[in-house]
Amino acid sequence: MEKLNQTATERRRLTRNRIYRYLYSAPQGRSKQEIADDLGLSTPTVHQNLAELLRAELVQTNGMRESTGGRRAVQLSVAENARFALGVSVSGEHFRILAANLRLEEIAYRKCSHPRTGSLAELGRLLAEELAQFMHDFGLNREKLLGAGIALPAILNAERTRVLTSPTLHLHDADLQPLADAIPCPVLLSNDATSGGYAEWFAQQEKGSIAYLSLEGGVGGAVLIDGVPYTGANGRSGEFGHICVQPGGLPCQCGQHGCLEAYCSSARLSTDLGVTVEQFFAGLEAGNLAYRTLWSDYLRHLAVGLVSIRMALDCNIVLGGYLAQYLPPYLPELRRLTAARDPFAETADYVRLCHYPKHAVPLGVALHFINQFIEAL
């Protein structure tokens, strides 16, 4: 009897979850009758499950549907602010903290500095203090918090329990448990580029596989196969920054020469020139000849890297990271340069720009808890 009750309870949960997911994916609110018709459910079943979701404040009414001749039907939609998750992107000197609602919409954001430390326990203590202040300052309800995702500039082991290496954080073979223990809520630890790629995969209309290439102070990336990160045998999949694009070329911080990162990091456009990225692109638009020459070289080497990624993975490539916000005017030229090196394509429409040029990493690591909540509802 107990097993039968458990089975019935699970069936009811699956029906409720199906209705919730239907509303979650709907581009606009839906009526009870539309839900029943589209899902092939009886009206009483839909009414009962919606009553439960409304009582839990997970679904809300938001106006009336257009009249089709009879009484106007109530329109229902997901209450996107019923829960939220925190996402944190960690660098050597800063935390980027973001709160995202159930639709992965940013509801609060802050960038704050922290002192450099080689201790994960100390890093956890500093982060816990910042998260508490963040929650207080933005008036976020702790009871609605699903968890905190923490994205690290590090290669992690498969179980995500150890940092194998992180030059940025000056860590090697370090236990992550002290960091997780310092945060007073459920915690997920992830690689930063993988997190950014996960957010971009979620935002894509075509839910296939993507390669994500992040262009920031470092050049990294991730491979997502139908939404599942492929990390490789040693956790180093997606290290696109160390594809060789110019044999014997510029030195890279990895110790090799000619890496994509040496040619296409933001440092080449800013630090190396003694200007900010914003000043570089302003000068580029104004016709600065030296900047134009450098930018042409940047795009040429980026195209070499993109063709290598395409040849290896044969999927769409999404360009993200801080530099992506400046790329729209130059995307046609980048695609032309890429296609000219691709023996199998006349165009390179597979090179796409990201949806989240600024906050993909914290959004992506927060997304884990949002998906977990939706799946378990």
Description:
The protein has 377 residues and is an alpha/beta fold. The protein has helices at 2-25, 32-39, 43-55, 120-137, 177-181, 192-203, 260-264, 277-286, 289-313, 331-340, 360-376, and strands at 59-64, 74-78, 84-90, 94-101, 106-113, 145-152, 155-156, 162-166, 171-175, 187-191, 210-215, 219-225, 228-229, 316-320, 351-353. The strands form four sheets. Strands 5-4-3-6-10 form a five-stranded mixed β-sheet. The chain has a five-stranded mixed β-sheet with strand order 13-12-11-14-15, sandwiched between helices. Strand 11 (210-215) and strand 12 (219-225) form a beta hairpin. Helix 1 (2-25) crosses helix 3. The chain is globular, with a radius of gyration of 24 Å. The model has no long low-confidence stretch (mean pLDDT 93).
Biggest sheet features = 5 strands, mixed
* End-to-end distance: 24 Å
- Mean pLDDT, as a whole number? 93
Report the count of strand segments. 15
Query: How do the strands of the widest beta sheet line up side by side?
Result: 5-4-3-6-10
What is the gyration radius calculated from CA atoms?
Answer: 24 Å
Low-confidence stretches: none
Helical run tally: 11
Structural class: alpha/beta
Binned, the helix content reads 25-40%
Q: What is the overall shape? A: globular
Labels describing this entry:
377 residues; alpha/beta; five-stranded mixed sheet; 15 strands; 39% helix
